Design the sequence.
């Protein structure tokens, strides 16, 4: 199942699993009440299986983890940030097709 | 891949209703969802005017149910978006980034997308304080002062919704009178958190070099006086533009870019039908979009029935 590859990031594990991770990490900031976020879900799931072993991909629920969302100045969701060496290297705000995410990720592989 | 009977472009109430009807007519429709899958209702909360749902239904839930209903009757749904169409050849050609499909009929249900003001700052600050989706982004403005631009029903709805989070919502509209229906105006006017700035143009959205919205520049349309008002969010609700760039030069469009239909859902090209907001700037309701999706499905079915035997697969 695709969802098996998708990590769950939280305020608690963000430092170790994202900021101090070895390779690139893609974080999908989402919430239950956000329609477009729900539609983006399957795209993130399929990216996670496509890039399994190469890029860590996961979701962060902004309702449950307001600290991280605030720290990265998230003001609109869905927002997908790509982290590398603890820094934001790319961001995609709003709904976008899978190819757009692939292009963004491939630049940093 | 063999030629399809029907390709439906778009997945709002019009597209999904067309998929439901053509699937039930055993036409094995293929629906290509598009970028804003589910359409405008995905951006709403409680829909209270969908007949039969007396207690209302959440917009995104309604769209999920429509999608499942279309799937249940055999519609095939592709999560992709169309990059080009050729409606001048037979069969018609519909392309996505990685596939090329052919079809005997095409039902266009691409809808309309939120219109922007056209300010340079608007695009750079999108997602950083500028938004077209109150239900998505309102949450991030708890305790903040924000603005809503627009004078229609959706502007009223967004402003009222945002008062749940924001300490103050300034409603900016360039005219003296609102376009919104009376019931929505009355509700909004009764809300003590909404401050009205009518006859006022939004000239610029400012970030003071911070990369997120810090203020807006308002100009009084009568006096010309310009004023900088601190806000941390600007929600743009000034209407919609039809998603018809794919069809320019191939179908007849009106001055505002809407597809012109005649005799139901028919376009200038026989076998190509249009339904929903992409061809309707007057009613623009979920129920009228669904109704026209049904019309397009029946029109496509009748058209296919009339195709000479040697052209059918």
Sequence:
């Amino acid at each position: 199942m695709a969802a098996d590859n998708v990590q769950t990031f939280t305020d608690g594990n963000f430092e170790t699993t994202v900021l101090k991770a070895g390779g690139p990490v893609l974080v999908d900031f989402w919430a239950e009440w956000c329609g477009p976020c729900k539609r983006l879900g399957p795209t993130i799931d399929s990216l996670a299986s496509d890039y399994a072993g190469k890029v860590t991909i996961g979701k962060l629920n902004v309702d449950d983890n307001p600290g991280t969302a605030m720290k990265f100045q998230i003001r609109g969701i869905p927002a997908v940030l790509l982290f590398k060496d603890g820094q934001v290297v790319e961001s995609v705000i709003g709904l976008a097709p899978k190819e757009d995410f692939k292009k963004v990720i491939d630049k940093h592989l | 891949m063999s030629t399809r009977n029907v390709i439906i472009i778009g997945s709002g109430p019009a597209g999904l209703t067309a998929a439901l009807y053509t699937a039930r007519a055993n036409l094995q429709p293929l629906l290509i969802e598009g970028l804003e899958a589910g359409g405008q209702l995905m951006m709403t909360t409680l829909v209270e005017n969908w007949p039969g749902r007396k207690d209302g239904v959440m917009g995104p839930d309604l769209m999920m149910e429509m999608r499942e209903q279309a799937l249940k009757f055999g519609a095939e749904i592709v999560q992709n978006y169309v990059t080009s169409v050729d409606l001048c050849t037979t069969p018609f050609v519909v392309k996505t980034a990685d596939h090329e499909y052919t079809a005997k009929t095409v039902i266009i249900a691409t809808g309309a997308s939120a219109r922007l003001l056209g300010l340079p700052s608007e695009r750079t600050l999108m997602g950083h304080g500028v938004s077209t989706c109150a239900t998505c982004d309102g949450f991030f403005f708890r305790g903040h002062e924000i603005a809503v631009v627009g004078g229609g029903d959706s502007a009223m709805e967004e402003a009222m919704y945002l008062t749940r989070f924001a300490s103050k919502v300034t409603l900016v509209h360039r005219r003296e009178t609102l376009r919104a229906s009376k019931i929505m105006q009355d509700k909004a006017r009764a809300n003590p958190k909404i401050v009205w700035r009518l006859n006022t143009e939004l000239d610029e959205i400012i970030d003071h070099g911070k990369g997120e919205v810090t203020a807006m520049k308002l100009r009084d349309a009568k006096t010309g006086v310009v004023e900088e008002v601190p806000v941390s969010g600007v929600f743009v609700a000034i209407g919609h533009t039809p998603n018809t760039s794919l069809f320019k030069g191939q179908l007849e469009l009106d001055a505002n870019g809407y597809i012109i239909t005649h005799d139901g859902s028919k376009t200038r090209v026989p076998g190509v039908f249009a339904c929903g907001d992409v061809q309707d700037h007057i009613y623009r309701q979920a129920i009228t979009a669904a109704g026209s999706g049904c019309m397009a499905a029946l029109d496509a079915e009748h058209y296919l029935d009339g195709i000479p035997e040697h052209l059918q697969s």
